[in-house]
Amino acid sequence: MREILLGILASMFFAVTFILNRSMELAGGSWLWSSSLRFLFMVPFLIVIVLWRKNLMQLLQEMRKNLVPWLLWSFIGFVLFYGPITFAAAYGPGWLVAGTWQITIVAGVLLGPLFYEFIQTNNGPVKIRNKIPVKALCISFLIFIGVVFIQFQNAANFTLSLLLLSVLPVLIAAFSYPLGNRKMMELCKGKLDTYQRVLGMTLASLPFWFLIGGYAFVTIGAPSNDQIVQSFIVAVSSGVIATTLFFIATDRVKHDQTKLAAVEATQSTQVFFVIVGEVLLLSSPFPNNIAIIGLFIIMIGMLLHSYFSKKGTTNVTVMKHKENNI
């Protein structure tokens, strides 16, 4: 399934966030600048892309029609996602932040009943609430078990303060990101493409990032040159490339909760990339045998998601073929 491959590719670029955020914190940078600079740097790149595609005015018109929802869901999907992620990096290692973030694969499945689908009937369109895909939920929990195995290597360093300052913020981010993403897809109703939606959410979140950046400037001063450079790398890699790839993948399967869960589960592969990056760049210890077992469990979960998503697509095609021959 091409959407799963897009999700895995996005995860590779997303992993840069966890590695460099931790690197900036270890170098004395503030999470306030790490979070706000990323989105400020994203704006010019996204504007150039949307301008080149000649649909900037359409985006601005759509935002003007529903400004409050744009501000609300962009705040939830971007600010409540990335703010807590960078805050957690100030108090916990990258492995803990990246590992805890994988709860989002379960969160995405659990959020299904908050959304509706319109089914065409003889009496007109009917609004039906989405159900939790039980099979997808079970597979997502399997992947999460694999993530827990990976964390056993660092269990000795786990404390209550680490739980409150590092794990809890990531839990908030894990639910906020898929919620904001899905609500914006619902709001756009297919009128905007992925690039427009990412730019729109970035623009709508700017007031909050300006407040965070302004507070950082008043309280701790300007960011260092090193933090500016690393934030720029995060903005391009994670903010522009990864976010766009992930949103393209979710856009393609937004009407199928099982496939959507499979695409969102690809974020679990971030753990692989974060481990490799921290070992190579931050001299973190290599995973032990238990952690390697966890990696295999994640791989099995991803293969199961891919298999059942492809099987579901085949079943739908067969049903449509039968309908056309009735």
UniProtKB/TrEMBL annotation:
Q: Keyword annotations for this protein? A: Membrane, Transmembrane, Transmembrane helix
Q: Which InterPro entries match?
A: EmrE
Q: Which Pfam families match?
A: EmrE
TM ranges are 31-52, 72-92, 98-120, 132-152, 158-177, 198-222, 228-248, 260-283, 289-308
Q: Could you confirm whether the keyword Zinc appears in this record?
A: no
Is-annotated flag, keyword Transmembrane? yes
Q: What is this protein called?
A: Multidrug resistance efflux transporter family protein
- Kindly list the organism's lineage: Bacteria, Bacillati, Bacillota, Bacilli, Bacillales
